[in-house]
Amino acid sequence: MITNSMPIAIFDSGFGGITVLKQLLKILPNENYIYVGDNANIPYGSKSKDEIINLTLRIVNFLVEKKSKIIIIACNTITACTYYILKEKYDTPIIEVISNGVIDAVKSTKNNNISIMATEFTVHSNAYIEKINQYNNNIKITQIACRDLCPMIESDWYSHSNRFEVLKGYLEKIDSKSDTLILGCTHYPLILDDIQKVLNESSNNSIKNIIDPALNTSSSIKKYLENNNLLNTNKNAEPYINIYSTGNIERVKLLINMLLPREIYNSYTIEHLNL
Predict the structure, then answer these.
(1) Using one digit for the tens of pLDDT, what is the confidence trace for 51-79?
(2) Which of 113, 131, 124 is nearest to 213 (CA)?
(3) Helices (H), ranges, 176-212
(4) Phi and psi of 201, rounded to 5°?
(5) 180 beta partners
(6) For 211-251, what is the HEC assignment?
(7) Which of 107, 158, 162, 255 is 20 to 30 A from residue 229's alpha carbon, by CA?
(8) What are phi and psi of 160, to 5 degrees?
(9) Within a 10 A sphere around the Cβ of 272, how many other Cβ atoms?
(10) What is d(CA 191, CA 166) in angstroms, rounded to the nearest whole number?
């Protein structure tokens, strides 16, 4: 039985899903959270479907054992590969990022021309194309497979001297008439400043809207909890954030301390997870 005080669970192939957690902390500060980052096995974007499914099932089994009241797939690649499998297998409510990013993008575009940056797996799955066509099949869609971005971000983006060169190579593939760009990997908003910098320096783009699916995803989660009377109303207990990673725990701590707001430092714990 699901109760209000049970935690919201978020998981990702690494720490891109922290972008979703940060948005949730803004609008649902009284909730308890569990976060799992499978840093030891990143990137997922170049893995086979079977590999992604097997890794994902291990993570979700862990989150179900932790009695999560809702599970968020904070990863576009995992969503594209496993969402319907997870929906069929588990009773716990599951929310994903692709649908939410699409809703935001379709509402934002004024000229029906959208470009999408994503991992190789997400691009080849055509999950974004299929979802966009459900809302409007007159939209022109350009997909850019960004093989290097996720692993570079996970290994400290700012330490890579060629980061602007790599980023420019991908952004140059955006349709010059697209007015909307979907960041189709939850890692990409972590380098939003650099993305905007490269776009601003280019005269060959028309991007007016950059879509971070974390924004609409967090709103959807809040709405779901409200509609199902599952908001945590316990004012007496201090909310907790339990973070688990399959990667090197010392390196993980450094990353987390950079990514999460300082005001919640006392609210979270970090533990290693063997899957």
Answers:
(1) 999 999 999 999 999 999 999 999 999 99
(2) 131
(3) 192-201
(4) -85, -10
(5) 114, 209
(6) ECHHHHHHHHHHHHHHHCCCCCCCCCCCCCEEEEECCCHHH
(7) 107
(8) -90, 110
(9) 13
(10) 13
> Per residue in 88-130, pLDDT tens?
999 999 999 999 999 999 999 999 999 999 999 999 999 999 9
The pLDDT confidence band at residue 252, using thresholds 50, 70 and 90, is confident
Q: Over 80: is that where the pLDDT of 236 sits?
A: no
Q: How far is CA 149 from CA 112, 120, 196, 259, in A?
A: 26, 11, 15, 17
Catalytic residue among 75, 81, 146, 150, which?
75
Place of tokens 């609210």: 267
- To the nearest whole number, what is the mean pLDDT of the chain? 95
What are the angstrom distances between the C-alpha of 224 and each of 69, 70, 114, 203, 228?
11, 9, 28, 42, 6
Per-residue confidence (pLDDT) for residue 35, from 0 to 100: 97
The residue type of 245 is: S
Q: State percent of the chain over pLDDT 90.
A: 87
CA-based nearest residue to 42, from 19, 16, 66:
16
Task: Kindly tell me the number of DSSP H helices and DSSP E strands found in the chain.
Answer: 11, 10
Annotated active-site residue 146? The verdict is no
CA distance 32 to 265: 14
What's the DSSP call for residue 263? Answer: G
Is 75 among the residues known to form the active site? yes
Element (H, E) at 98: helix 98-108
